[in-house]
């Protein structure tokens, strides 16, 4: 009896760690991991803007685009405002009142990314000096020409008088992109690190299923891909003209093209000519820039810095000015003809 009492007394005198070392280590480790994740989540949100994302809606016709009425800022200097029509714009648009609205279309080059604020976009910069006119940006990350066609023509999206399409050559090879497999969200993350986790999974997925470089294809398959895009662009252009809208189309160059390290895609150029689609190659307006200035225009091989957006806006603004003058002159003549008819 006495030895049992002594053993019990010794056991009770030991602390919890001595009695349950594995359980204690597990509990302490779990606590440290939880605290670390908590502070990492706070730091990720505060310093890197993790979790502050634009939310998209999936759609069976045009693929996907940002949901309306969002204000997102990874940092206070770069604010993304999405208006009531799902456009990057400083103000809401009144449906039906389209005559002084100018809508920009395209992919992530037009959209600008989260590192560019609304007021730095070429869509805003090109229009800001036109009194009474409002710019809207319908660019969407990873979109192709077929997505733009589907939104405007198939969904009869006509909230503007003037349409400005800006496409890099890669958009002619994308077809109609869907949100599946893209690193975009259809809901807000529950916590900041969830965005990082999804991005890591996305990068792993890319390693398993690398993207196909369709521009490197040759022969009939490449021709068919380009013709599909150009025919959609042609039908979009015809549709806008039939609805008495103005339409400008620009091909935005890569950094390598402006530096003279690569040439334009002749297959795309020839197909555009074949379908009588009038486009402006922005490279032709920027060819004489020095190398250091060209590099300052680009965030990467294809996307623009704030300086790049400003430069693109200067070129586009000249064409917009001409169209606006034509439209306003025509409006005055129509009004005078109507007044003369009534007198």
Description:
This protein is an alpha/beta fold and 343 residues long. The protein folds into two domains: 2-47, no CATH class; 73-181 and 209-335, Rossmann fold (3-Layer(aba) Sandwich). 47% of the residues lie in helices and 13% in strands. It is built from 13 helices and nine strands. It has helices at residues 2-13, 16-19, 21-48, 108-111, 122-125, 145-154, 192-208, 220-242, 255-258, 266-274, 283-286, 291-296, 306-342; strands at residues 56-59, 63-66, 70-75, 78-82, 101-106, 134-137, 162-167, 246-251, 280-281. Strands 6-5-7-8-9 form a five-stranded parallel sheet, sandwiched between helices. A two-stranded antiparallel ribbon has the order 1-2. A hairpin with a 3-residue loop joins strand 1 (56-59) and strand 2. Helix 8 (220-242) packs across helix 10. It is globular.
Highlighted features:
13 helices, single chain, 343 residues, two-stranded antiparallel sheet, 2 domains, 5-stranded parallel sheet, alpha/beta, Rossmann fold
Structural topology:
Layout: H1 2-13, H2 16-19, H3 21-48, E1 56-59, E2 63-66, E3 70-75, E4 78-82, E5 101-106, H4 108-111, H5 122-125, E6 134-137, H6 145-154, E7 162-167, H7 192-208, H8 220-242, E8 246-251, H9 255-258, H10 266-274, E9 280-281, H11 283-286, H12 291-296, H13 306-342
Parallel strand pairs: 5-6, 5-7, 7-8, 8-9
Antiparallel strand pairs: 1-2, 3-4
């Amino acid at each position: 009896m006495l030895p049992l009492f002594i053993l019990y007394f010794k056991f009770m005198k030991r602390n919890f760690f001595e009695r349950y070392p594995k359980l204690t280590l597990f509990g302490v480790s779990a606590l440290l991991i939880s605290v670390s994740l908590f502070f990492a989540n706070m730091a990720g949100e505060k310093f890197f803007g993790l979790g502050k994302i634009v939310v998209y809606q999936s759609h069976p016709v045009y693929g996907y685009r940002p949901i309306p009425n969002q204000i997102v800022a990874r940092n206070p200097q770069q604010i993304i405002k999405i208006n009531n029509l799902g456009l990057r714009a400083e103000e809401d648009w009144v449906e039906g009142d389209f005559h002084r609205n100018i809508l920009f279309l395209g992919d992530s080059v037009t959209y600008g990314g989260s590192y560019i604020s609304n007021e730095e976009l070429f869509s805003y910069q090109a229009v800001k000096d036109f009194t009474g006119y409002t710019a809207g940006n319908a660019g969407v990350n990873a979109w192709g020409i077929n997505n733009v066609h589907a939104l405007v023509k198939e969904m009869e999206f006509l909230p503007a008088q003037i349409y400005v399409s800006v496409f890099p050559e890669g958009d002619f090879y994308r077809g109609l992109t869907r949100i599946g497999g893209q690193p975009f969200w259809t809901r807000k993350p529950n916590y900041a690190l969830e965005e990082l986790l999804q991005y890591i999974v996305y990068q792993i997925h890319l390693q398993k299923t690398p993207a196909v470089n369709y521009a490197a294809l040759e022969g009939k398959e490449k021709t068919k891909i380009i013709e599909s895009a150009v025919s959609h662009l042609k039908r979009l252009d015809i549709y806008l003209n039939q609805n008495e809208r103005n339409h400008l189309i620009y091909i935005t160059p890569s950094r390598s093209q402006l530096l003279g390290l690569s040439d334009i895609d002749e297959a795309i150029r020839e197909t555009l000519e074949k379908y009588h689609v009038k486009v402006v190659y922005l490279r032709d307006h920027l060819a004489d820039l020095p190398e250091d200035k060209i590099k300052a225009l680009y965030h990467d091989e294809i996307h623009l810095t704030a300086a790049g957006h400003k430069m693109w806006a200067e070129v586009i603004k000249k064409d917009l000015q001409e169209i606006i003058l034509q439209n306003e002159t025509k409006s005055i003549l129509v009004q005078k003809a109507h007044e003369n008819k009534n007198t």
